Amino acid sequence: MKRMPMVLTVMILAAASAAAPPPAATSEPVTVEELIRRGRRTGEAVADGTARFLWTTRVTIQGAAFDVITVLDGARARRSLYVVQDGERRYELLTIIERDGVWYVREMGAPLGKYRPFEAPLRLPNAYLVLNAADLLFLLPGAMATVESVADGEATLRTDLPPQKRAQLQATVDACRDTLRQLGDNPGAEQVEAKLRELERLLRDGQVVTVDVRTGALLANSSPVLERRILSLTTEIEADERTFDVSAARWPDCTEDPTLEGDLGNLIMMLHSPMATPGNADRLKQALALRLVNLRTGQVRRVPFRGPAGLGGCFSRDRRKVYVSGLDMQNGGLAIYEIDLSTGENRRIGEGALPDGMALMSALSGDGTTLAVLMFSPDLQSQLYLVDLAGDKARPLGRPMDTAFLSWLDDGQGLILVDRKMVSMDEPTEDSVARMALDGTVTVLVPGRHPVLIPRRGRILFQQDDGWKTSDLDGRNVELYAGGMKGYGFPAVSPDGTRLVWMRFETGKMPQPVIQTFGSTAVTELDLGPGLWAGPAWR
Asked: 1-24+48-136+219-255 belongs to which CATH class?
């Protein structure tokens, strides 16, 4: 059985409340096609700046709930207020006012700041996930659904699961059944059985959603990670200039273009959970956010992915763009996105060419033309694909295999990766450093894990039980690297091969990012701020 790859999960501990929405005026029959048309018109009005709305969305994750109150006043401005209520006390955790393409951000426990859209490095765990779910959403064109009833201006629909979600759900059902067989009468079996019944019902009956008949907006829907419900939605708003006023405070300016950095080799991507401590890191490591870090200045900002969460991949050849694995909330799974760090533009890569599933790793060839992507299918089979960025075409490379840690050879004629072989379910895999040619042929080089090609040096860095080592490109001439680097892991190499960022692990402390000149035994700590840092990506 394949091991479950890392997936994005969520943990927000809070509770919220809000008034129930007033009843709408109509119960006229309506078709799915008409709801899609109305949703498209509403979405176009939001996009072109002619829509005026006030709405409150409750987002619930693992029993914890937040309310997000949003005021949209056409092209003038937008204000989102993120609140939580504890008993009789109401806390305003986050306010974002968007004016003239700039976010003015006020977050509890953090300094004020103004940012370009989606770049604010918010402290709240999964804040972007909640904000994304709180937005106006609509039925997708071609949605397979049936209107079951219409009452008080709300249409209740039963929708068929998209093929990707159905396949993922079936894989989860199969895994639950396996777990249940292994548990027998042991503790935990009842919870697994209850979850299994819920998943089987969803697989059999599909998903129930409610839609606002007037606007076509989704009022209530759920996913495996959250539930959302619009509690009130109106065009009758009384917003004036004071609603969007930002003149009463001084806002530190964080809107500069990161690609204006003199040496773009100083930019690196890392995952960060700002509120994590040694005591809660196991929980909050599930809430890691993708950051762009300037190693020279220490400035930290969010990689401007417009979705809720992402994983670092690689940089473009000119380092003005990045390729990331982004969470696709409407279709499920992880997809590859190209993000322009200068303009903030997002472009999905390989849409229709790559299969459905989870794209967990990517690596760009030295000439910048081909992206290697590791895809996990819903049944957890992993397959490497090569994507031609010019034509957005993809082809599988080699056979499915358990692999990770992709590095292109300098000459572009293949990749270095790890080749894992399962011994048994209760033992670690046997890992080897391997080379994959462009015809899919795999050559095992040397026992080891987490291989990293050091560019321009003809060396591979990898880990064995007795320390970190290097070898030549054929797995020969193995040497201990910098004394073995005991206690260090997850190295990321600079594009010129001269520096490495490592994570240092010490008992009772948070992992500490450090930087090292290649081959030196000395390291320098990177002071990037508190919290949990992980997953550096530099090339």
From this structure: mainly beta
